[in-house]
Structure formats: structure tokens, C-alpha cells
Q: What sequence folds into this?
């Protein structure tokens, strides 16, 4: 698990937050998005700005292109926020990377004519790697959080999340691979490779990664640990012995009586109850060094890792 900034450092292609207030936009990794028209409105979380598209002429085009930055072996993750209240008689493209209108190699994400969310990826004209249309209408004038992850390979799973990052709204199996590219045309607000499919609505916080990530990769949990004196809990160097941290933020964990279970490879011990004023445990490192306030420790859980911060340890 890591922060967005850490994952962007490792796998980032670009991250646009549109907080310049107007004009062209500069991604956090330095590439320039050329903006035609558009205006800025309040950001998705009430902070900064979002890009607003008029549905007839507004577009942002990526001047550098992402060709060859996303190999099929690494995959791709795309995350962004959108808000739309318009239903047209034709498709509206929020994001598109099609190389040309005729051959249509690449990805497109948008709202189709009945207000439903749509995503498709092709590696040749009308040859879909995968295609998805939501059951739900998303042209509802509310902000929505989209997360799409695919390793880019044929016969592998594509996971699509909208708003609820715990459960995918769709898990698809790709028929063809993506031939290793997002393709150099990267547009927001209309199709790429042709001046069609104009989008009416807002877009914010566009993140693109060169790896198939999951929402849990972005989670970073903290726990509050209070201890009494002269009590020790050794974090075993045996990786079969781990701790299971509930998937919820710390204040909710405490309010709901949540626990952190210590799982031993032989016998499960009693849970550590963080709802009590103190526990009978003190967290120490493998070399018996106490973990004080502000110290971090990482715990292996299956193929994943969870990181905890000690806020109070005395």
C-alpha cells in the first residue's frame, strides 16, 4: 500500500489536477496538455479546479503522447473524476486515445446516448479487446470516481470501479491484447483521431499509471496503539506470522469496536482490542527495539503489505 504520490513516482505516466485556473495545463510529471476553450470550475472535492467542457468545441490534447510508455507487460491504470448532466443523441468521450477514426486503435471512455458509462479498447478497427456499458445512468450531475485497471494482455481480467472502490462494477476478460500502447493521441473532451464525440461536463484529477494497480494499492491505514509498561509483542521474523488490519479508517475502526488480529502460523492468538484505553501489548521490531510514536512498520499479508503508523506508544 502506498500514497498516490508514491505510486505516481513508481509507475506514473501523468497526473493532471487542472489547478492552474485557466489555459493550458501542466501535469505533475511535467507534460503539457494543450487546452482549446474550456473553463475551470470548482474541483471535485471543493478544492482547486476542474476542467469544464462545453460539448461543442472544448478539448485538451496531450502534446507529448504516451506511445511506448505503457508496455503490454506492465499494463495500465486510469483513474479520474467526472460530473455530467447531459444526455445527447450520440456518444460523448471523456477520455480517448484512438490513433485514428477509421482504424480506432486505443481506448475510449465516455457517456453514451442513454446516459450510461461506456469504456472500450480496440487494437484494430472494430476489433474490441473489451467493451463495457454500465447498467446505471451516470449523467446525474454528481461527481463520480472511475478506476480502470488492465495488464494489457489477452485473456486477462479488466477491472472497472465506479465510486465504490471495494467492489468492481465490472470484471471483464480481454479477448485481445492492446498491442502495447495507449497510442499517442490522448484527448480529454472529445474523440482522438477525429473531431467527434464532444463531451459536456467536468473532469478532474486524471491519473494514468503504467501498471495494472488495484484500489487497495492506494490505501494507507493508520492505527492508534496505547500500551502499558513491561509488555511486549514481538513481530516474528517468520513471515507466516502476520497481522490482519481491518480495511477501514482508524476512527471508524475504534467506533465500531474493530480489532487487529494477530495471526500465527500455528495457532490464532486473541485479537488486540484497540477500543480499550490501553492494551497489554507493546509493538517492537524483530531486534526488540520499541516502536515509538511516529514510527512505521510494514506487515506482509499474503501477497500484499499493510503499513501502520504508531500515534501513541508509551
A:
Amino acid at each position: 500500500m502506498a500514497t498516490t504520490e508514491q505510486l505516481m513516482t513508481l509507475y506514473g505516466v501523468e497526473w493532471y489536477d487542472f489547478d492552474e485556473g485557466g489555459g493550458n495545463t501542466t501535469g505533475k510529471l511535467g507534460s503539457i496538455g494543450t487546452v482549446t476553450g474550456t473553463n475551470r470550475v470548482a474541483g471535485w472535492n471543493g478544492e482547486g479546479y476542474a476542467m469544464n467542457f462545453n460539448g461543442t468545441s472544448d478539448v485538451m490534447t496531450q502534446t507529448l503522447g504516451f506511445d511506448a510508455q505503457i508496455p503490454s507487460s506492465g499494463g495500465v491504470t486510469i483513474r479520474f473524476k467526472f460530473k455530467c448532466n447531459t444526455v445527447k443523441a450520440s456518444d460523448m468521450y471523456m477520455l480517448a486515445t484512438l490513433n485514428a477514426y477509421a482504424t480506432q486503435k486505443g481506448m475510449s471512455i465516455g457517456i453514451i446516448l442513454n446516459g450510461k458509462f461506456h469504456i472500450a479498447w480496440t487494437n484494430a478497427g472494430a476489433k474490441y479487446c473489451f467493451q463495457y456499458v454500465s447498467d446505471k445512468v451516470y449523467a446525474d450531475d454528481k461527481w463520480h470516481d472511475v478506476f480502470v485497471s488492465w495488464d494489457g494482455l489477452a485473456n486477462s481480467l479488466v477491472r472497472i470501479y465506479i465510486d465504490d472502490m471495494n467492489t468492481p462494477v465490472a470484471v471483464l476478460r480481454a479477448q485481445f491484447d492492446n498491442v502495447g500502447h495507449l497510442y499517442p493521441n490522448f484527448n480529454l473532451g472529445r474523440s482522438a483521431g477525429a473531431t467527434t464525440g464532444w463531451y459536456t461536463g467536468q473532469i478532474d484529477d486524471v491519473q494514468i499509471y503504467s501498471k495494472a494497480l488495484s484500489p487497495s494499492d492506494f490505501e494507507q491505514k493508520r492505527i492508534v496503539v496505547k500500551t502499558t509498561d513491561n509488555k511486549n509483542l514481538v513481530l516474528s521474523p517468520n513471515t507466516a506470522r502476520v497481522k490482519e488490519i481491518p480495511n477501514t479508517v482508524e476512527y471508524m475502526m475504534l467506533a465500531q469496536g474493530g480489532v487487529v488480529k494477530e495471526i500465527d502460523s500455528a495457532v490464532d492468538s486473541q485479537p488486540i482490542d484497540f477500543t480499550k484505553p490501553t492494551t497489554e501489548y507493546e509493538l517492537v521490531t524483530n531486534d526488540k527495539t520499541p516502536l515509538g510514536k511516529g514510527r512505521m512498520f510494514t506487515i506482509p499479508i499474503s501477497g500484499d503489505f499493510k503499513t501502520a503508523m504508531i500515534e501513541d506508544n508509551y
